Amino acid sequence: METRSRGRVEKRRAILAAAFEVFGRRGYAEACVKEIAEVAGVAKPTVYNHLNDKETLFHHAVDAAAEAVLGDLLEVVEGLREPGDDLRAALEDVALRLALTCADPRSRALRRLVHAQADRFPELAASVHERTSLRVADALADRVARLVLAGRLRSCEPGEAAEQLLALISWPVEARSRAGTREVGAAELRVVAVNAVDTFLRAFGG
């Protein structure tokens, strides 16, 4: 029974991953369940057994991708739990890894899909924003608060400081990637990270 349940979960994950790939490549309107089934390696009826229709499939595929992106971003922010003696270097490392995550193919596809379907599925755009940007900002605010208490950053409102640091990273990535339609190289992202941290420390450095 447990093996059967695990197999069903794994099949569902494969379907959602395939759906996100196909939606990301073709867009919502042009994507078809038949191709999604082929990419997932399952029969078309199996897709409908797991997820009732194309719209439900789209919502769940985007939700799963957003959760995966969130997990990656939160893991990066954890790098500030023990930043070591060189705070600038630690911040630059975290900023670069955040920028790399925001600019990777999955994150770019997620932004393209959410932006393209914002009018049709506004609640989905709000959900993705809450799951990614807001939760990452909360986690970063916690790290900032700890750095303030340790005297390594000047007294500030941690939420606002975290929001500004994320904006200094995410906005240049969004602009350089042209809303997720262009791949941005690591060298460009390093410049973004260094500039973001420099501006942040000018404002909040201890």
Map the helices and strands.
Elements: H1 2-30, H2 33-40, H3 44-50, H4 54-77, H5 87-102, H6 105-116, H7 122-149, H8 158-176, H9 186-204
Polypeptide structure, described:
Helix content is 79%, strand content 0%. By secondary structure, it is mostly helical. Helix 8 packs antiparallel against helix 9.
What class do helices, strands and sheet pairing give? mainly alpha
Write the H/E string, N to C: HHHHHHHHH
How many H/I helices?
9
Alpha carbon gyration radius: 19 Å
Largest sheet: none
Portion of residues in beta strands equals under 5%
End-to-end separation in angstroms reads 58 Å
Characteristics of this structure?
206 residues, mainly alpha
Give a short synopsis of this structure.
The chain is mostly helical and 206 residues long. The protein is built from 9 helices and no strands.
